[in-house]
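We recall that each integer encodes one residue's backbone shape. We quote one record:
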Amino acid sequence: MTYPLLFPRGQCSWNTGMEHVEERRTAKRTRVTQLQYYAYRLSQRNGFSILHNSVRLAVHLPQQQPIVYQDGQEAQAIERTALRKTTLTSWFELNKNDPSAHISYSDIPQHYVFDKSTTNWKKRQRGGQNVIGRLPVVRILRYSFPESL
């Protein structure tokens, strides 16, 4: 029994001049695990996920917030950074001032919204069931090794 080979553009059967391609070597990996898929989805920019909205939370040591400045304006940038509160420093103040707000740092976006204009956490008016607090990876040796010397 023979089967005809049909090609959409070209000859209708096999011939000796056909190029042989090893598909296993040239094919890209097309399968991903659920863990890889959701890790990818959660690492995307805020507001683009159908499943959950992620809020990036700052992690830094005391008085070591990241500073963005232009050449020649270093002093003004340091003064602005001393006055500016991050999500972490504002969370510390929220826990100090509001006794009912003792929530872990990673869970705070489910109950509060960070207002960038006032740099304070405000209680959510609507539900925050689909909000995830995203913490960056912090290498422990980076902070603990210099302090131990």
